[in-house]
Amino acid sequence: MDKYDTIANSKKAMDSARMAGCTIIHVPIAFEDGHKEISGDFGILQAIKEGKTFKANEWGSAFCDTMKPGPTDLICKGKSGLCGFHSTNLDFLLRQNGIKNVVLGGFLTNCCVESTMRTAYEHGYKVYTLKDCCAATSVEGQEAAYAHTFGMFSIPTTSDEIIGAVQGSPVSA
């Protein structure tokens, strides 16, 4: 997060898009007490269960102060897995609001962001993934996602390019 100034770039992109009239949709992850939604004994979901992380209505599932939803933002409901589409109302929110372009940022780059990017692409959305508004557990994981995955399922871009696009300048991605 430090190398790419992820939080500051995310805030700047979100605020600019909001001011330009874009629909902002937040896709939080949360699990009930005991993480009963998760079965299996391996992988990142098992680590979430063992660590008792992202418990609903607790600090781990709360929005960070910098990225709190605004009064016009939408909040996707039901994310209890890696993909922003699976088990949620995200596709419904996008379709109901006539959204055809999806701009993604978030955590973890090579997990939730990639999974959501792939599904958005497969659902026919034009997907832009913000290279400087995502973070992985390592710089190497982050850079591998940029180099090998982003371009397969999205248009890799930056917060400055998206800000220019929503303010009327063309995106050079």
Automatic annotation (TrEMBL):
Keywords: Hydrolase
Domain of life the protein comes from: Eukaryota
Presence of keyword Calcium: no
Pfam families to which the protein is assigned, alphabetical: Isochorismatase
This protein's record includes keyword Hydrolase: yes
Stretches assigned to the Isochorismatase-like domain: 3-161
Coiled coil stretches, renumbered: none
Xref: InterPro entries: Isochorismatase-like_dom, Isochorismatase-like_hydrls, Isochorismatase-like_sf
Listed GO MF terms: hydrolase activity
Protein family (similarity comment): Belongs to the isochorismatase family.
Alphabetical list of PANTHER family matching this protein: ISOCHORISMATASE-LIKE DOMAIN-CONTAINING PROTEIN, PEROXYUREIDOACRYLATE/UREIDOACRYLATE AMIDOHYDROLASE-RELATED
Protein name per UniProt: Isochorismatase-like domain-containing protein
Species assigned in the record: Minutocellus polymorphus
